[in-house]
Structure formats: structure tokens, C-alpha cells
Amino acid sequence: MIFNKTLTHWYSINKRSLPWRETKNPYYIWLSEIILQQTQVKQGLPYYEAFVSEFPTVFDLAKADESEVLKLWQGLGYYSRARNLHTAANYVVDTLNGLFPDNYKDLLKLKGVGDYTASAIASICFNEETAVVDGNVYRVLSRYFGIDTPINSTKGAKEFKALAQELIDKEQPAEFNQAIMEFGATQCKPKNPDCKICPFQESCIAFNKNRIEALPVKIRMAKAQIKHYNYLVFLSEDGKTVLEKREGKGIWQNLYQFPLIESKHNLKSSEIKDVISRHKLLENRTYTWSEYNEDVIIHKLSHQHLHTKFWVINLKTLPKDAIATNKIRKFAVPTLIGNFIESFNF
């Protein structure tokens, strides 16, 4: 088919030099694909290099503590990816003797591996004819073929997967998959794609019908929920503070944070005083407190926006299990907390 040959030719000339393109080792391909989910290459590359350096084999990753993995992942967000990464590594080591599955169907059994990641590994490492479909692929196909089906719908997922599978170059599926992802990332970009030098300009429906900005189509998601967070930053005279591990399910599961008080609205200084005084760590203690940020810090997650304030509480002593402030950077924390730690300059 002309489409796939044109695409792979473009890729042979324009592909970026990236470390995971120099190998077919499934461990490294898997690692790169998990890191690059919902992450741009320029942000993910340093994390990939750090993980390869710290955990050069799947055995090294499996025997690490989850806290080590989360700490190395800090700042990438979507922490379930890191937890799934660790779980899958243990599965490969304990159940598969360190050998990654060599086909799409069995790769899907790995925790955190879905259709896209399984297709990428199967095609790149084992030359299986299974097409990848990610955000870049949705965009390229919807624009080129003028498809209005919402990409975040069940119908859309099936339609685009079937189309990609029909288009895949059966002689070189790995090249095709990497080419279409690269084309979407660097040429057919979400905004301001460089259509003037696009090899598909003459046959692209979106370009010829002036619909570049309208495609792909997405169903509008529910409006993000607003939550009000108040973090209590305890500081003792002997240089200690308090961090708590988040338990239960959630995107920040097993990460550390300062003691948290949720409120129904943004609390002012006059309102927080009574709330602080009821905290168990302040019973029968003398302390002073201050507002760190007068304006709320808004931290946006995919499904909620956190309106956050930090309150600094100074007191003489803290419990024995308190943490020395000079060791606070050793703990895996959400980006919101990490940014505060850097700005506060413990």
C-alpha cells in the first residue's frame, strides 16, 4: 500500500536518534513504552536513562523496593504506571524466569500492559504484525482519512485499530509502527503541524478540506472536580518534620506527603487556626503557625484540580518517628509536595 511505504520512507530520513531504537531487548522496549505513556520524549528520556542505569535488568527492577521505584519515578505523574511496572517485573522474574513473553497475547498478561504497549513490544522485538494505536496514531489516521468517530469512544478504538491493522507494512511491522508514532509526534503534531512539507499533503482529507484543527474528534469528559487541600508542615527545633504515607487506592498510593486536612472551601488564616489546634500532634503543646502561600497553588490532575495551601507549624519537639528535614528528599512524594520541598529549601 502506498501509505505505508511513504510513511516508512519518511521515517528512514526523519527519525530521531533515541536509545530504545538501538535495541530489540524487550526489557528496554517495555521500559521505554511504559515511561512514554502520556509523556513526551523530552520529558521521558532522562527517566528512561535513570531506570536503565539503576535497574539494568528486569531482575534488578524486580528485587528493588517499591519505594525505590516510586522515588525514581517522581515527577512523571500517573504513579500507577510505576507500581504496575514493579509488579510486572516481579511476574516476569518469578513466573517466567526472567523471559518476557514473545507475542502480543501473552504480553497482555503483564500488569499495566494494554493493547498499545503489547503491540509495540510484539512488533519491535518479535516482528509480529500487530498495529499500535496511540494518540499520535489516532491523530494521523483521523486527519489523513477524515474520520469523525471520537477517538475516546469504544467505536473509535475498534475502528482505528482495524484501520491501523489494515495499513501495517507486513514486511516490516516494527518500522511501520515506529514510523507512524514518530510522524504523529514530530510532523502531524496536535497544533501547528508542518503541512507544507508533509509527504501526504495531496491526499490528506483534513488538509484539503481545511479540517486540521477539527480532527481528531474527542468526546468531552466530565469537568474536573475541585478539592481543597491544606498541608501541615511541622518543624521542630531539632530539625525534624512529619511525613505520612498515603494508604489505600488512589493515584498517590504509597507516596509520602505532609499531614493533610481537606476542606470544603479555601480556608483563610482565621479559619485554619481552630482546625490546626485539633490536630493530634499539637495536643498540650505550645506552637506557632504561619501561612506559607497566601494564594492557593492549583495542581491539575486528569480528574481533579487541587487548590492547595501549606501551613508551617513550629514547635519544640516532634514524636520519635519524625523525619530529619535533611533526609526529606529520600522519600517518594507527589510532584505537588516535591515542588514545595524545593521552594521551601529545607
From TrEMBL:
Its cofactor is [4Fe-4S] cluster. Binds 1 [4Fe-4S] cluster. InterPro entries: A/G_AdeGlyc_MutY, DNA_glycosylase, HhH-GPD_domain, HhH_base_excis_C, HhH_motif, MIG/MutY, MutY_C, NUDIX_hydrolase-like_dom_sf. GO terms for biological process: base-excision repair; mismatch repair. It comes from the Bacteria. It is an enzyme of class 3 (hydrolase). It catalyses: Hydrolyzes free adenine bases from 7,8-dihydro-8-oxoguanine:adenine mismatched double-stranded DNA, leaving an apurinic site. Keywords: 4Fe-4S, DNA damage, DNA repair, Glycosidase, Hydrolase, Iron, Iron-sulfur, Metal-binding. The keyword GTP-binding does not apply. The keyword 4Fe-4S applies. Its EC number is 3.2.2.31. GO terms for molecular function: 4 iron, 4 sulfur cluster binding; 8-oxo-7,8-dihydroguanine DNA N-glycosylase activity; adenine/guanine mispair binding; metal ion binding; oxidized purine DNA binding; purine-specific mismatch base pair DNA N-glycosylase activity. NCBIfam families: mutY. Belongs to the Nth/MutY family. This is Adenine DNA glycosylase. The lineage of its organism: Bacteria, Pseudomonadati, Bacteroidota, Flavobacteriia, Flavobacteriales.
